[in-house]
Protein 1
Amino acid sequence: ILNVEQSPQSLHVQEGDSTNFTCSFPSSNFYALHWYRWETAKSPEALFVMTLNGDEKKKGRISATLNTKEGYSYLYIKGSQPEDSATYLCAFYYGNNRLAFGKGNQVVVIP
Amino acid sequence: GAVVSQHPSWVICKSGTSVKIECRSLDFQATTMFWYRQFPKQSLMLMATSNEGSKATYEQGVEKDKFLINHASLTLSTLTVTSAHPEDSSFYICSALPTSGRVQETQYFGPGTRLLVL
Protein backbone atom coordinates (compact mmCIF):
# COMPACT_ATOMS: atom_id res chain seq x y z
CA ILE A 1 0.00 0.00 0.00
CA LEU A 2 1.46 3.35 -1.03
CA ASN A 3 1.60 5.85 1.80
CA VAL A 4 0.83 9.40 0.70
CA GLU A 5 0.38 11.66 3.67
CA GLN A 6 -0.76 15.25 3.74
CA SER A 7 -0.52 17.55 6.73
CA PRO A 8 -2.15 19.37 8.27
CA GLN A 9 -5.50 17.84 7.38
CA SER A 10 -7.23 21.20 7.72
CA LEU A 11 -6.21 24.75 8.40
CA HIS A 12 -7.82 28.13 8.80
CA VAL A 13 -5.94 31.10 7.42
CA GLN A 14 -6.64 34.79 7.82
CA GLU A 15 -7.10 36.63 4.54
CA GLY A 16 -3.80 38.12 3.46
CA ASP A 17 -1.68 35.63 5.39
CA SER A 18 0.55 33.12 3.68
CA THR A 19 0.43 29.43 4.43
CA ASN A 20 2.00 26.15 3.43
CA PHE A 21 1.38 22.47 3.81
CA THR A 22 3.13 19.19 3.16
CA CYS A 23 2.74 16.07 1.09
CA SER A 24 5.00 13.12 1.87
CA PHE A 25 5.35 10.13 -0.43
CA PRO A 26 7.59 7.12 -1.05
CA SER A 27 11.09 8.25 -1.99
CA SER A 28 11.84 5.20 -4.13
CA ASN A 29 10.75 4.66 -7.75
CA PHE A 30 9.70 8.26 -8.18
CA TYR A 31 8.17 9.36 -11.50
CA ALA A 32 5.90 12.31 -10.80
CA LEU A 33 3.85 14.10 -8.16
CA HIS A 34 0.62 15.86 -9.01
CA TRP A 35 -1.11 18.66 -7.10
CA TYR A 36 -4.81 19.37 -7.53
CA ARG A 37 -7.12 22.02 -6.14
CA TRP A 38 -10.64 20.82 -5.33
CA GLU A 39 -13.48 23.18 -4.56
CA THR A 40 -16.71 21.78 -3.17
CA ALA A 41 -19.15 20.54 -5.85
CA LYS A 42 -16.60 21.08 -8.62
CA SER A 43 -14.06 18.93 -10.43
CA PRO A 44 -10.53 18.73 -9.04
CA GLU A 45 -8.42 21.20 -10.98
CA ALA A 46 -4.83 20.38 -11.91
CA LEU A 47 -2.26 22.74 -10.41
CA PHE A 48 1.14 21.19 -10.99
CA VAL A 49 2.87 18.07 -12.21
CA MET A 50 6.31 17.83 -10.66
CA THR A 51 8.92 15.42 -11.92
CA LEU A 52 12.43 16.58 -11.03
CA ASN A 53 14.09 16.78 -7.63
CA GLY A 54 14.40 20.43 -6.70
CA ASP A 55 11.54 21.44 -9.01
CA GLU A 56 9.75 24.62 -8.07
CA LYS A 57 6.57 25.57 -9.89
CA LYS A 58 4.36 28.60 -9.58
CA LYS A 59 0.84 29.52 -10.63
CA GLY A 60 -0.22 32.96 -9.50
CA ARG A 61 0.06 33.07 -5.71
CA ILE A 62 0.42 29.30 -5.39
CA SER A 63 3.77 27.58 -5.66
CA ALA A 64 5.15 24.12 -4.96
CA THR A 65 8.53 22.56 -4.32
CA LEU A 66 9.68 18.98 -4.64
CA ASN A 67 12.27 16.87 -2.80
CA THR A 68 12.28 13.37 -4.25
CA LYS A 69 15.25 12.16 -2.20
CA GLU A 70 13.46 12.67 1.10
CA GLY A 71 9.97 12.20 -0.33
CA TYR A 72 8.13 15.43 0.28
CA SER A 73 6.55 18.35 -1.51
CA TYR A 74 5.44 21.68 -0.10
CA LEU A 75 2.58 23.78 -1.42
CA TYR A 76 2.62 27.48 -0.59
CA ILE A 77 -0.15 30.03 -0.84
CA LYS A 78 1.03 33.63 -0.64
CA GLY A 79 -1.37 36.30 0.56
CA SER A 80 -4.37 33.96 0.93
CA GLN A 81 -7.68 35.11 -0.50
CA PRO A 82 -11.17 33.69 0.17
CA GLU A 83 -11.18 32.15 -3.30
CA ASP A 84 -8.22 30.00 -2.23
CA SER A 85 -10.54 28.09 0.11
CA ALA A 86 -10.48 24.53 -1.20
CA THR A 87 -9.01 21.11 -0.57
CA TYR A 88 -5.55 20.65 -2.04
CA LEU A 89 -4.73 17.10 -3.09
CA CYS A 90 -1.38 15.60 -3.87
CA ALA A 91 -1.07 12.39 -5.86
CA PHE A 92 1.91 10.11 -6.33
CA TYR A 93 2.35 8.52 -9.74
CA TYR A 94 3.09 4.81 -9.36
CA GLY A 95 3.16 3.47 -12.88
CA ASN A 96 0.74 2.76 -15.73
CA ASN A 97 -0.69 6.27 -15.32
CA ARG A 98 -2.06 5.41 -11.86
CA LEU A 99 -2.17 7.94 -9.03
CA ALA A 100 -2.22 7.37 -5.27
CA PHE A 101 -3.82 10.30 -3.48
CA GLY A 102 -3.39 11.77 -0.04
CA LYS A 103 -6.42 12.74 2.02
CA GLY A 104 -5.96 16.38 1.15
CA ASN A 105 -5.26 19.67 2.92
CA GLN A 106 -8.52 21.51 3.52
CA VAL A 107 -7.92 25.26 3.55
CA VAL A 108 -10.43 27.81 4.79
CA VAL A 109 -9.51 31.44 4.28
CA ILE A 110 -11.24 33.72 6.75
CA PRO A 111 -12.13 37.17 5.38
CA GLY B 1 -10.54 23.05 -22.49
CA ALA B 2 -10.12 19.58 -20.97
CA VAL B 3 -13.58 19.25 -19.48
CA VAL B 4 -14.90 15.98 -18.10
CA SER B 5 -18.54 15.52 -17.22
CA GLN B 6 -20.20 12.91 -15.06
CA HIS B 7 -23.81 11.90 -14.93
CA PRO B 8 -25.71 11.66 -12.71
CA SER B 9 -24.27 13.87 -9.98
CA TRP B 10 -26.54 12.33 -7.36
CA VAL B 11 -28.32 9.01 -7.27
CA ILE B 12 -30.41 7.30 -4.63
CA CYS B 13 -31.43 3.72 -5.25
CA LYS B 14 -32.86 0.73 -3.46
CA SER B 15 -30.69 -2.15 -2.36
CA GLY B 16 -30.38 -4.77 -5.08
CA THR B 17 -30.72 -2.44 -8.04
CA SER B 18 -27.97 -1.55 -10.49
CA VAL B 19 -26.75 1.96 -11.11
CA LYS B 20 -24.88 3.24 -14.14
CA ILE B 21 -22.59 6.28 -14.00
CA GLU B 22 -21.30 7.93 -17.15
CA CYS B 23 -18.01 9.75 -17.58
CA ARG B 24 -17.46 11.83 -20.72
CA SER B 25 -14.50 13.81 -21.98
CA LEU B 26 -16.18 16.74 -23.71
CA ASP B 27 -13.40 18.37 -25.69
CA PHE B 28 -10.65 15.79 -25.99
CA GLN B 29 -10.20 12.12 -26.67
CA ALA B 30 -9.21 9.81 -23.86
CA THR B 31 -7.85 6.35 -24.53
CA THR B 32 -7.62 5.84 -20.79
CA MET B 33 -10.08 6.76 -18.06
CA PHE B 34 -9.96 6.02 -14.37
CA TRP B 35 -12.58 5.34 -11.73
CA TYR B 36 -12.04 6.31 -8.12
CA ARG B 37 -14.10 5.96 -4.98
CA GLN B 38 -13.94 8.12 -1.89
CA PHE B 39 -15.38 7.28 1.51
CA PRO B 40 -15.89 10.05 4.09
CA LYS B 41 -12.63 11.54 5.36
CA GLN B 42 -10.62 9.16 3.18
CA SER B 43 -8.51 9.67 0.11
CA LEU B 44 -9.56 9.05 -3.46
CA MET B 45 -8.94 5.36 -4.06
CA LEU B 46 -8.34 4.07 -7.57
CA MET B 47 -10.80 1.30 -8.43
CA ALA B 48 -9.91 0.56 -12.03
CA THR B 49 -8.26 1.76 -15.18
CA SER B 50 -10.54 1.79 -18.22
CA ASN B 51 -9.01 1.45 -21.67
CA GLU B 52 -10.97 2.13 -24.82
CA GLY B 53 -11.79 -1.05 -26.66
CA SER B 54 -10.36 -3.42 -24.08
CA LYS B 55 -11.12 -4.84 -20.66
CA ALA B 56 -10.64 -2.67 -17.62
CA THR B 57 -7.83 -3.32 -15.19
CA TYR B 58 -9.05 -3.49 -11.60
CA GLU B 59 -7.06 -2.65 -8.51
CA GLN B 60 -6.56 -5.29 -5.86
CA GLY B 61 -9.66 -5.85 -3.77
CA VAL B 62 -12.10 -4.36 -6.27
CA GLU B 63 -14.68 -6.87 -7.53
CA LYS B 64 -14.84 -6.71 -11.31
CA ASP B 65 -18.24 -8.44 -11.41
CA LYS B 66 -19.61 -5.92 -8.96
CA PHE B 67 -18.26 -2.84 -10.71
CA LEU B 68 -18.68 -3.26 -14.46
CA ILE B 69 -16.72 -0.85 -16.61
CA ASN B 70 -17.28 -0.22 -20.28
CA HIS B 71 -15.16 2.12 -22.38
CA ALA B 72 -16.79 1.88 -25.78
CA SER B 73 -15.51 5.12 -27.28
CA LEU B 74 -12.67 7.59 -26.87
CA THR B 75 -14.96 9.98 -25.01
CA LEU B 76 -17.16 7.76 -22.85
CA SER B 77 -16.61 5.31 -20.02
CA THR B 78 -19.38 3.90 -17.84
CA LEU B 79 -19.29 2.35 -14.40
CA THR B 80 -22.19 0.10 -13.41
CA VAL B 81 -22.58 -0.81 -9.77
CA THR B 82 -24.46 -4.08 -9.95
CA SER B 83 -26.83 -5.23 -7.22
CA ALA B 84 -25.93 -2.24 -5.11
CA HIS B 85 -25.94 -2.54 -1.32
CA PRO B 86 -25.73 0.12 1.39
CA GLU B 87 -21.99 -0.47 1.77
CA ASP B 88 -21.57 0.66 -1.86
CA SER B 89 -22.79 4.11 -0.87
CA SER B 90 -19.90 6.39 -1.64
CA PHE B 91 -18.60 9.17 -3.85
CA TYR B 92 -17.50 7.94 -7.27
CA ILE B 93 -15.34 10.11 -9.49
CA CYS B 94 -13.75 9.55 -12.86
CA SER B 95 -10.77 11.05 -14.60
CA ALA B 96 -9.59 11.02 -18.19
CA LEU B 97 -6.11 11.01 -19.63
CA PRO B 98 -5.71 12.71 -23.03
CA THR B 99 -4.72 10.23 -25.70
CA SER B 100 -1.25 11.73 -25.99
CA GLY B 101 -0.68 10.98 -22.26
CA ARG B 102 2.89 10.94 -21.03
CA VAL B 103 4.12 10.07 -17.56
CA GLN B 104 3.70 13.64 -16.44
CA GLU B 105 0.37 14.21 -18.19
CA THR B 106 -2.43 15.60 -16.09
CA GLN B 107 -5.57 13.58 -15.54
CA TYR B 108 -8.74 15.62 -15.90
CA PHE B 109 -11.48 14.89 -13.42
CA GLY B 110 -15.22 14.90 -13.54
CA PRO B 111 -17.23 16.47 -10.70
CA GLY B 112 -18.16 13.10 -9.20
CA THR B 113 -21.31 11.14 -8.43
CA ARG B 114 -22.67 10.62 -4.96
CA LEU B 115 -24.42 7.27 -4.59
CA LEU B 116 -26.72 6.45 -1.72
CA VAL B 117 -28.09 2.93 -1.52
CA LEU B 118 -31.06 2.49 0.79
Protein 2
Amino acid sequence: SQQGEEDPQALSIQEGENATMNCSYKTSINNLQWYRQNSGRGLVHLILIRSNEREKHSGRLRVTLDTSKKSSSLLITASRAADTASYFCATDSNFGNEKLTFGTGTRLTIIP
Amino acid sequence: NAGVTQTPKFQVLKTGQSMTLQCAQDMNHEYMSWYRQDPGMGLRLIHYSVGAGITDQGEVPNGYNVSRSTTEDFPLRLLSAAPSQTSVYFCASSYSSLITGQGNQPQHFGDGTRLSIL
Protein backbone atom coordinates (compact mmCIF):
# COMPACT_ATOMS: atom_id res chain seq x y z
CA SER A 1 0.00 0.00 0.00
CA GLN A 2 1.22 3.50 -0.76
CA GLN A 3 1.81 5.77 2.17
CA GLY A 4 2.61 8.88 0.19
CA GLU A 5 0.77 10.34 -2.74
CA GLU A 6 2.35 13.10 -4.76
CA ASP A 7 0.38 15.79 -6.49
CA PRO A 8 0.40 16.63 -9.31
CA GLN A 9 1.40 13.48 -11.15
CA ALA A 10 3.03 15.60 -13.85
CA LEU A 11 4.10 19.23 -14.04
CA SER A 12 5.58 21.27 -16.89
CA ILE A 13 6.94 24.76 -16.35
CA GLN A 14 9.20 27.25 -18.09
CA GLU A 15 12.82 27.46 -17.06
CA GLY A 16 13.27 30.04 -14.34
CA GLU A 17 9.82 29.52 -12.83
CA ASN A 18 9.22 27.92 -9.46
CA ALA A 19 7.93 24.36 -9.18
CA THR A 20 5.82 23.14 -6.29
CA MET A 21 4.84 19.55 -5.69
CA ASN A 22 2.92 18.11 -2.80
CA CYS A 23 2.91 14.88 -0.84
CA SER A 24 0.17 13.54 1.38
CA TYR A 25 0.54 10.57 3.68
CA LYS A 26 -1.74 8.49 5.82
CA THR A 27 -0.12 7.55 9.13
CA SER A 28 2.05 9.28 11.71
CA ILE A 29 5.68 9.64 10.75
CA ASN A 30 9.05 10.36 12.30
CA ASN A 31 10.46 11.94 9.20
CA LEU A 32 9.77 12.56 5.53
CA GLN A 33 12.31 12.50 2.75
CA TRP A 34 12.31 13.78 -0.81
CA TYR A 35 14.19 12.05 -3.63
CA ARG A 36 14.87 12.87 -7.26
CA GLN A 37 15.11 10.31 -10.06
CA ASN A 38 16.54 11.17 -13.43
CA SER A 39 15.44 9.03 -16.35
CA GLY A 40 17.11 5.63 -16.28
CA ARG A 41 18.89 6.27 -12.99
CA GLY A 42 18.47 5.48 -9.33
CA LEU A 43 16.95 7.78 -6.75
CA VAL A 44 19.03 10.54 -5.24
CA HIS A 45 18.29 11.88 -1.76
CA LEU A 46 17.45 15.59 -1.70
CA ILE A 47 16.31 16.52 1.77
CA LEU A 48 15.00 15.03 5.01
CA ILE A 49 12.60 16.80 7.34
CA ARG A 50 11.74 15.51 10.79
CA SER A 51 8.28 15.51 12.30
CA ASN A 52 9.22 18.29 14.74
CA GLU A 53 10.38 20.56 11.91
CA ARG A 54 8.07 22.74 9.84
CA GLU A 55 10.39 24.01 7.13
CA LYS A 56 13.81 23.18 5.77
CA HIS A 57 15.98 24.69 3.05
CA SER A 58 18.76 23.29 0.91
CA GLY A 59 20.04 25.52 -1.89
CA ARG A 60 17.09 26.12 -4.24
CA LEU A 61 14.94 23.58 -2.42
CA ARG A 62 12.43 24.41 0.26
CA VAL A 63 10.45 21.71 2.03
CA THR A 64 7.56 22.23 4.39
CA LEU A 65 5.84 19.72 6.61
CA ASP A 66 2.39 19.99 8.17
CA THR A 67 1.87 16.98 10.42
CA SER A 68 -1.67 18.06 11.32
CA LYS A 69 -2.64 17.78 7.66
CA LYS A 70 -0.26 14.90 6.98
CA SER A 71 1.23 16.72 4.03
CA SER A 72 4.51 18.08 2.74
CA SER A 73 5.50 20.29 -0.15
CA LEU A 74 8.69 20.60 -2.15
CA LEU A 75 9.43 23.94 -3.78
CA ILE A 76 12.18 24.27 -6.38
CA THR A 77 12.97 27.90 -7.06
CA ALA A 78 14.42 29.33 -10.28
CA SER A 79 14.07 26.00 -12.09
CA ARG A 80 16.70 24.79 -14.55
CA ALA A 81 16.55 22.27 -17.37
CA ALA A 82 18.63 19.94 -15.21
CA ASP A 83 15.77 19.80 -12.68
CA THR A 84 13.75 17.73 -15.16
CA ALA A 85 13.18 14.48 -13.28
CA SER A 86 10.68 12.57 -11.18
CA TYR A 87 10.36 13.54 -7.55
CA PHE A 88 9.27 11.17 -4.80
CA CYS A 89 8.40 11.62 -1.17
CA ALA A 90 9.15 8.80 1.25
CA THR A 91 7.97 8.30 4.79
CA ASP A 92 8.96 6.10 7.67
CA SER A 93 6.73 5.03 10.50
CA ASN A 94 8.93 3.90 13.36
CA PHE A 95 12.03 5.37 14.85
CA GLY A 96 14.97 3.03 14.40
CA ASN A 97 13.37 1.39 11.40
CA GLU A 98 14.86 2.34 8.05
CA LYS A 99 11.90 1.03 6.10
CA LEU A 100 10.55 3.71 3.80
CA THR A 101 7.29 3.88 1.92
CA PHE A 102 7.45 5.81 -1.34
CA GLY A 103 4.78 7.73 -3.15
CA THR A 104 4.08 7.39 -6.86
CA GLY A 105 6.03 10.51 -7.79
CA THR A 106 5.66 13.78 -9.67
CA ARG A 107 7.15 13.97 -13.15
CA LEU A 108 8.62 17.48 -13.55
CA THR A 109 9.54 18.82 -16.98
CA ILE A 110 11.39 22.11 -17.31
CA ILE A 111 10.90 23.72 -20.70
CA PRO A 112 13.97 25.68 -21.83
CA ASN B 1 34.13 5.35 -3.61
CA ALA B 2 31.66 3.62 -5.96
CA GLY B 3 28.56 3.89 -3.72
CA VAL B 4 25.94 1.24 -4.51
CA THR B 5 26.71 -0.99 -7.49
CA GLN B 6 24.10 -3.20 -9.13
CA THR B 7 24.72 -5.88 -11.73
CA PRO B 8 23.57 -6.67 -14.31
CA LYS B 9 22.03 -3.46 -15.68
CA PHE B 10 19.72 -5.36 -18.05
CA GLN B 11 18.51 -8.94 -18.15
CA VAL B 12 15.96 -10.94 -20.12
CA LEU B 13 14.75 -14.22 -18.70
CA LYS B 14 12.31 -16.88 -19.71
CA THR B 15 9.48 -17.88 -17.41
CA GLY B 16 10.69 -20.41 -14.87
CA GLN B 17 14.35 -19.46 -15.00
CA SER B 18 16.19 -18.37 -11.87
CA MET B 19 18.77 -15.67 -11.44
CA THR B 20 20.53 -13.51 -8.88
CA LEU B 21 20.65 -9.74 -8.95
CA GLN B 22 23.82 -8.48 -7.33
CA CYS B 23 24.14 -5.46 -5.07
CA ALA B 24 27.30 -4.21 -3.39
CA GLN B 25 28.05 -1.07 -1.38
CA ASP B 26 31.38 0.28 -0.19
CA MET B 27 30.13 2.76 2.41
CA ASN B 28 30.02 0.31 5.33
CA HIS B 29 26.27 0.80 5.63
CA GLU B 30 24.41 -1.49 7.99
CA TYR B 31 21.02 -1.23 6.29
CA MET B 32 20.38 -2.54 2.78
CA SER B 33 17.16 -3.06 0.90
CA TRP B 34 15.64 -4.10 -2.42
CA TYR B 35 12.79 -2.29 -4.16
CA ARG B 36 10.94 -2.86 -7.38
CA GLN B 37 9.62 0.03 -9.43
CA ASP B 38 6.64 -0.42 -11.70
CA PRO B 39 4.89 2.28 -13.75
CA GLY B 40 2.42 4.27 -11.70
CA MET B 41 3.20 2.42 -8.48
CA GLY B 42 6.30 4.07 -7.11
CA LEU B 43 8.82 1.89 -5.31
CA ARG B 44 7.76 -1.12 -3.30
CA LEU B 45 9.98 -2.77 -0.71
CA ILE B 46 10.80 -6.43 -1.38
CA HIS B 47 13.30 -7.41 1.35
CA TYR B 48 15.63 -5.58 3.68
CA SER B 49 18.52 -6.25 6.04
CA VAL B 50 19.66 -4.35 9.13
CA GLY B 51 23.03 -6.07 9.22
CA ALA B 52 25.00 -9.13 8.20
CA GLY B 53 23.05 -12.30 8.94
CA ILE B 54 19.73 -10.48 9.42
CA THR B 55 17.05 -10.18 6.75
CA ASP B 56 13.33 -9.49 6.77
CA GLN B 57 10.43 -9.24 4.37
CA GLY B 58 9.07 -6.05 2.94
CA GLU B 59 5.78 -5.32 1.21
CA VAL B 60 6.13 -7.69 -1.79
CA PRO B 61 8.49 -10.56 -0.85
CA ASN B 62 6.83 -13.48 -2.65
CA GLY B 63 9.01 -15.09 -5.32
CA TYR B 64 12.23 -13.53 -4.02
CA ASN B 65 14.94 -14.64 -1.60
CA VAL B 66 17.78 -12.68 -0.02
CA SER B 67 20.78 -13.34 2.15
CA ARG B 68 23.32 -11.07 3.84
CA SER B 69 26.56 -12.87 4.56
CA THR B 70 28.69 -9.72 4.50
CA THR B 71 28.09 -6.04 5.22
CA GLU B 72 28.92 -5.16 1.61
CA ASP B 73 26.73 -7.54 -0.39
CA PHE B 74 22.98 -8.11 -0.53
CA PRO B 75 21.98 -10.35 -3.48
CA LEU B 76 18.36 -10.81 -4.55
CA ARG B 77 17.38 -14.18 -5.96
CA LEU B 78 14.43 -14.88 -8.24
CA LEU B 79 13.58 -18.52 -7.66
CA SER B 80 11.33 -19.18 -10.68
CA ALA B 81 10.83 -16.07 -12.80
CA ALA B 82 7.29 -15.04 -13.74
CA PRO B 83 6.13 -12.32 -16.16
CA SER B 84 4.72 -10.40 -13.17
CA GLN B 85 8.29 -9.91 -11.98
CA THR B 86 9.14 -7.81 -15.01
CA SER B 87 10.25 -4.57 -13.39
CA VAL B 88 13.14 -2.31 -12.55
CA TYR B 89 14.89 -3.39 -9.37
CA PHE B 90 16.75 -1.00 -7.11
CA CYS B 91 19.09 -1.72 -4.25
CA ALA B 92 19.62 0.89 -1.55
CA SER B 93 21.77 1.25 1.55
CA SER B 94 22.11 3.57 4.51
CA TYR B 95 23.56 3.86 7.97
CA SER B 96 21.36 2.48 10.69
CA SER B 97 19.56 4.98 12.85
CA LEU B 98 19.95 2.57 15.75
CA ILE B 99 23.68 3.09 15.54
CA THR B 100 23.81 6.77 14.64
CA GLY B 101 21.08 7.68 17.10
CA GLN B 102 20.06 10.44 14.71
CA GLY B 103 16.85 9.05 13.33
CA ASN B 104 16.25 7.63 9.89
CA GLN B 105 19.04 8.12 7.43
CA PRO B 106 19.05 9.04 3.72
CA GLN B 107 19.11 6.06 1.40
CA HIS B 108 21.75 5.65 -1.30
CA PHE B 109 20.46 3.94 -4.43
CA GLY B 110 22.09 2.00 -7.22
CA ASP B 111 21.15 2.67 -10.84
CA GLY B 112 18.90 -0.35 -11.08
CA THR B 113 18.55 -3.62 -12.95
CA ARG B 114 15.98 -3.67 -15.73
CA LEU B 115 14.52 -7.16 -15.82
CA SER B 116 12.17 -8.58 -18.44
CA ILE B 117 10.51 -11.98 -18.06
CA LEU B 118 9.18 -13.50 -21.26
